[in-house]
C-alpha cells in the first residue's frame, strides 16, 4: 500500500486532530503517503484532497476541532455518490481510507467498504455511543468540560441555596450525562435510556428539603428531557428556587485531555496497521483497556449500553 | 470602632470570598472584630450572625461563590425592615457594615446609611455596572470564562464552517458582551445600550460570505436580544448554517482571576480604612488604576456608560 | 459491621477527597458509621479521630489534596506502633480500616491486615505504580496537568526555535513521563526503567537539526535523569539552544479530572463492599476497565511494568 | 503611509499574537500593507519578510507565543547592523516599523528611530517592567498562570502541613512575585527591589508556628533569591518541613487572558494611529486605565517602580 486517505466526519470532537496527526506521521514512518480529505465524505465527491506531510500536522495534538474540517452529509447515503467517491479515490491512487468519526459516519465507512474500497473506522465522537469500544475519542474531554462547567454552577447553587437543572449533550444516549453527573456530584441524573418519573423526582427533592438539603443538582441529557421543560414540570408541582443551564456547544471544543490525545494516537496507529495489513472493514476502539477493533458491520448494527450500575451509585452517594 | 459586620448580596461573583477574607484579616490586624452576616440583607433581619476569626477565612482566595451566602431580598426596600436590621446590628454591638455586592445591593447600603448606620459598599458584580468604578469584583473572571467558552465554540465553528450566536450575561448593560466579544474575536457584538438593525447584520454577513468568510461569530448580551430570537431573524432572511449557545450561569462561578483576587483584597482594605476613619457612605472601586471611592448616593443615582469606542475597533479587526 | 475508619497516606493525589466522600456517603447509605483518621497512619497512633457525617464531605469532589491530611510515617514499620494503632481502633469500636494511598502506604495496610485487623487498600497515587491496577486515583489529573504545562512551554519553544528538557515526577517509574510525553508530542522520553544512551539522544537531535527541525522536546522522569544534568550532557556535546523546566509539585494538586473523580467514587464503594462482606486484605483498583481487586500481599510484592510499546510509538510519531 | 512592518522581540509573551493580528487587521481596514518580520531584529538583517493578509492572522487571538517568532539579538546593538536593517526595510518599501516587545527590545526600537526610521514600540513582556505603562501585554496571563500553579501547590502544602517556597520569574523586578503573592495568599513575598533579612523571615515563621499555623507559603522572584538557596538558609536555622517549586517557563506560554487580548488589540491600534499620523518614536501602553504612550527615550531611560504598598497589605492579610 502506497497511499491512504483520511477524513473526519460528523460532529467534531477533541482529539480528531491528534488522530489525523498520528495517521500522517505513522504513514510517513512507514513510507506511505497520506492524503487529507476536507469536509468529510463531501470532500470525497468534490475531490477536496491535499497531500499531508509530517510537518503539516505539527502542533495539532493540543488543538480542538479538526483541521480537515467536517460535515454531516445526508446525500452520502446514495449509492451513486458512494461510487463516485471510490472512483475519485482510485483516480488519486489512494488504496485505503480512514474515517475518523462517530456512529453515523461509520455507516458511511461500511457502505464504502461493502462496495469494495478498503475502509477503516476510528471511533471518535463526544457521545461515546459506538458499540464495541469502551471509549471514543473526545468523550473524556467533553465530560471534563461539562464537569468543570457544573463545578462553576455549583458555586452559585451553593451561594444562593438554589437548585439547578443542567442539560448536557446526548440525544439518544446518556453516556455524557451519567459520567458528568457522577463526577460532579449530581443528585439526580436523567438519561434517554430510562423513562423518568417526575413524581419520583419531586419526592426525592421534597425529602432532601425535609433534611435541610440546601440545593439539588439535576443533570439531564438533552434526549431525556429539555431543561426548560423539566423546570416547568417541577415548578408546577412544588415551590422551589430553581434555575437552568444548557451547556450546549462548549462540550464539543477545547484542547483534548491526555486520555483523548493518547487513544487518538493509538487508534490511528492501529487503523494504519490493519489497513496496511489488508484487514480493513473495522472500527478501532479500546476495550478492556486494550486497543482493539470490531467489524464495521458489528459496530454499526449493535447498540452500546450505558452502565446502569452507575445509577445506583449516584443515588447512594447523594445526600 | 470595635466591631463591624460584613455581608454579600445580590448575584454571587468570583472574588466575593477574597473580599470577605480581606475584611476579616484586616480587622484582625487592627483589633476589630468582624461579624459575618449570612444570606445578605435577609441575614440582618434574621440575625444570622457569626463571629469570623482569621482562620475561618483560610483557603478562601481561590474559591468562587460566597461563603457568607447571598440573596436578592425585595422586602429590604421597606423602611421597617431596614430599621429592624439596624436595630439587630446595634444589639450585637456592631458599629459599621460592609456590603459586598452590585448596583441593587448598594441601594440597600444607601438606605441603611441614610438611616444613620455607617455603611460601606464594595463594588462586586460580574456585570461591571456600578458608576464610579472602572471594574467591579468578578467581572474579569466572568469575561475570562466567557472567552474560554467562546474559544471552544470557535473550534466547532471553524471545523464545520458554521456560524454561531453566543448569548452572554448582561440584562441592562453590555460590558460583558463588549469585552468578551473583542477578546474572542467576535465579528458582531450586540449590547442593550445600542438598538441593533437586523438588516445591517444581514448585510454584514452577506458581505462576509461574498468574501468567502467561513463563519461568523456573533456575541449578544441577553438584554440586547435572545440568541434564539436572533437566530430566527437571521434564518428568516438568509440561508445560513447557524447555531446558538447561551453561556448562562457558568459565567458566575469559578476560581477568581488574579485581578479579581487583588482588587477584592484592596477594595476590602480600603472599605475598612474608610469605615474605621469615620468616612462611611461610600462605594469602593478602582478608577484610573487607583483604589478609590464615590459616595453611595452618586454610585446609585448615576449610570455607568460602556466604551463605545470598542465598537468601532471590533468592526475594524473583523474580516 | 457498624463502624469503619478511613485514612489517606503518602503523597497527596487529586481524587483522594472524592474517595473519602464516597466512603462516608456509602457508609451512611448502608448504616455504617465512618471515622476519619487524620494525618495518615500517624493519626492511628495519636487517636486523631473524628466521626464524619455525610455533609462533612459536601463539596469535596472537586477539591485537590486531602481533607484528612496525610503524612509519610517511617516509624509505622515498627510492630509496636502497629499494635498500638489496632488497639486504638478497637477501643473506638472500629471494625475495619480503609487506606487510600500508594505503594508504600499499602505496605502499612498489609502489616495491619496481617496482624488481624481487617484492612482494605484503595489505590491512590499520582505515580500509577501499584501492581494489579491499570490506573490509580490521581494519575489522570497529574498527567493532564503535566500536559497542559508542556503545552505552554511549547509556545515558547516554538516562538524561539529553542529546545526544552521537561522533568516530570517519577522516582522509580516512568508512567507519568511516558503518558505525558506521548500526549504532549515529546520527541524523546526518558524513564527510570530504561537506561538511556546520551550518544543516541545526540544522534537523534542532530538528525532532527539536519532535517530543519526547529526544536526538540525531551520529557524525562526525575528518576531517569535530572533535567539539569541532562542539559549539561547535551551542551557538552553539541551547540544547541536548550532550556529546562522542572514541573515539580504542581503535578500533585488541582481539581481532579472526571476520570479520577469517578474511579475514586467507585473504588471506595468497592472497598466498602469487600470490607462489609468480610473480604478484607485487598487493594481496590481498575483492570481491563472493570473495578477489581488484588490481595494486599500481591499488590505489595509485585512490580508494575510500563507499556514499552508506547516507546516505539513516540519515536514513530516524532518527526 | 502605504506599508509598515511588524516584529516581535525578546521573550515571548501571551498576547503578542493578538497584537500582530490587530496590526494586520487595522492595516487592512485602512489600506496599509503589513509586512511580518520573522525572528525579531534578526529578521531585519536577514530580510526574513512576509506580506501578511488579514486571514493569515485568523485564529491567533487565543494562541500563546508569537507566530512571527522572536529572538534576543545581542548584535543588534551595533550601528552597522541597525543601518543594514533600515536599508532592508526601505528597499522593501516599508515606511514604518512596529516593535512588540519588552524593555530590551525597545532599546532597539529607539536606536532605529534615532537613526531616522519611524519606529513604534508596543509594550509586551510578562515582566511588566516598562516605564510609562501600568501593564504590559502578557503580564496578566503570566500572573494568572503562576497563581493557578500556586493554588495547586497549596493543596499539597495544606494536606501535608508542609511549607513551600515558590520561585517565580523576575530577574530585576518583583512585579510578578508581588502580584502572584498577593493573589495566592502568600505569607511572605521577596522581590529584587528589597533586600530581605533572613532572620526576620525566620522570626515570622517561628511566630506562625507558635500560633499553630500549619504551613507557610513564600513566593520569591528569581532575582531576589533562588528557591534552593532560600531553602538552605531556612533549614540551617530552623527545623521546618519545607519544599521548593520553581515555576519557570510555564509562566511564559498559554492562551492569553481577556485582559491581555484586549490591551494587545488596543495597543496595536494606537501604534498604527500614531505611526500613520507621523508621530513615531513612542511606546504604547496603558496608564490610569487609558491607552497612552510615552516617548521611546523616556521608556528606555526611566525605571518602573513596584507598588511598595502591596507589601504592607500582604503582611496584614497573612495570619
What attributes does this structure have?
homotetramer, alpha/beta, Rossmann fold, 2 domains, 7-stranded mixed beta sheet, 4-stranded parallel beta sheet, 41% helix
Q: Which chain pair has the greatest contact?
A: A-C, 46 and 46 residues
What is the average per-residue confidence, as pLDDT of chain A, rounded to a whole number? 97
Care to count the β-strands of chain A? Answer: 11
**Residue ranges of chain A: pLDDT <50 for 5 or more in a row?**
none
Can you put this structure into words, describing what you see?
Four copies of one chain form a homotetramer. Chain A has 319 residues and is of the alpha/beta class. Chain A folds into two domains: 182 residues, Rossmann fold, CATH 3.40.50; 111 residues, Phosphofructokinase domain (Rossmann fold, 3-Layer(aba) Sandwich), CATH 3.40.50.460. Helices cover 41% and strands 18% of the residues of chain A. Chain A has eleven helices and eleven strands. In chain A, the strands form two sheets. The first copy, chain A, has a seven-stranded mixed sheet with strand order 3-2-1-4-5-10-11, with helices on both faces. In chain A, strands 7-8-6-9 form a four-stranded parallel sheet, with helices on both faces. The longest helix of chain A has 22 residues. Chain A is elongated and about 70 Å long. Chain A starts with a strand and ends with a helix. In chain A, 62% of the residues are buried. The model of chain A has no long low-confidence stretch (mean pLDDT 97).
Amino acid at each position: 500500500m502506497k497511499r491512504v486517505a483520511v477524513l473526519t466526519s460528523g460532529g467534531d470532537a477533541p482529539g480528531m486532530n491528534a488522530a489525523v496527526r498520528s495517521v500522517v506521521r505513522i504513514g510517513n514512518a512507514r513510507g506511505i503517503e497520506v492524503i487529507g480529505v476536507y469536509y468529510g465524505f463531501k470532500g470525497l465527491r468534490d475531490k477536496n484532497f491535499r497531500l499531508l506531510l509530517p510537518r503539516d500536522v505539527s502542533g495539532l495534538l493540543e488543538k480542538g476541532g479538526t483541521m480537515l474540517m467536517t460535515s454531516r452529509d445526508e446525500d452520502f447515503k446514495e449509492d451513486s455518490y458512494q461510487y463516485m467517491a471510490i472512483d475519485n479515490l482510485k483516480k488519486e491512487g489512494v488504496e485505503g481510507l480512514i474515517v475518523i468519526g462517530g456512529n453515523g459516519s461509520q455507516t458511511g465507512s461500511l457502505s464504502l467498504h461493502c462496495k469494495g474500497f478498503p475502509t477503516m473506522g476510528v471511533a471518535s465522537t463526544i457521545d461515546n455511543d459506538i458499540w464495541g469500544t469502551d471509549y471514543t475519542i473526545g468523550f473524556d474531554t467533553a465530560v471534563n468540560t461539562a464537569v468543570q462547567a457544573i463545578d462553576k454552577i455549583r458555586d452559585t447553587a451553593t451561594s444562593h441555596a438554589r437548585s439547578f437543572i443542567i442539560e448536557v449533550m446526548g440525544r439518544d444516549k446518556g453516556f455524557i450525562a451519567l459520567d458528568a453527573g457522577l463526577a460532579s456530584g449530581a443528585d439526580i441524573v436523567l438519561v434517554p435510556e430510562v423513562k423518568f418519573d417526575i413524581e419520583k423526582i419531586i419526592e426525592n427533592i421534597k425529602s432532601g428539603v425535609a433534611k435541610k438539603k440546601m440545593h439539588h443538582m439535576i443533570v439531564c441529557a438533552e434526549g431525556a428531557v429539555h431543561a426548560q421543560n423539566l423546570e416547568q414540570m417541577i415548578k408546577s408541582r412544588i415551590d422551589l428556587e430553581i434555575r437552568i443551564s444548557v451547556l450546549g456547544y462548549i462540550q464539543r471544543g477545547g484542547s483534548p485531555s491526555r486520555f483523548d490525545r493518547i487513544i487518538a494516537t493509538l487508534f490511528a496507529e492501529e487503523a494504519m496497521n490493519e489497513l496496511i495489513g489488508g484487514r480493513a472493514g473495522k472500527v478501532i476502539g479500546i476495550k478492556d483497556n486494550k486497543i482493539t477493533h470490531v467489524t464495521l458491520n458489528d459496530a454499526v448494527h449493535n447498540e452500546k449500553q450505558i452502565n446502569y450500575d452507575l445509577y445506583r451509585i449516584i443515588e447512594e452517594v447523594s445526600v
